[in-house]
Amino acid sequence: VLSLRQRDQCFSFKKLALIGISEGKHSNIRGLEHFSGVSRYFQMISFPKTVYLPEIQEVIENWSLTNPIGTRLQIFLDDFRKF
Of 1, 55, 74, 77, which has the fewest CB atoms closer than 10 Å, so is most exposed? Predict the structure, then answer.
């Protein structure tokens, strides 16, 4: 259960990874910057790498784990598991 009243128990020192998704070309970079500030306020541990997925509709339509984006996501997830 997530609770702001018990934020130390819910959020402090929990690990998180950020993935930027957008329909445009910039992958919600400003949103990720803002959320990384929020996560620092909650004392969360942020994974140093970030994956950006611009033009997500095209990515979904042409999805395959063998394409460069699928490979990049797989490497990102493997690295996050080790983190």
Answer: 1
Read off the tokens for 54: 């611009």
3-state SS string for 17-66: EEEEECCCCCCCHHHHHHHHHHHHHCCCEEEEEEEEECCHHHHHHCCCCC
Please write the tens of the pLDDT for every residue from 35-64.
999 999 989 999 999 988 888 888 788 777
Residue in 3, 13, 21, 5 with CA at minimum distance from that of residue 39: 13
Q: Which amino acid is at 62?
A: N
17 C-beta neighbours (distance < 10 Å), count: 16
Distance CA 26, CA 61 (A): 19
Q: How far apart are CA 66 and CA 71, in angstroms?
A: 6
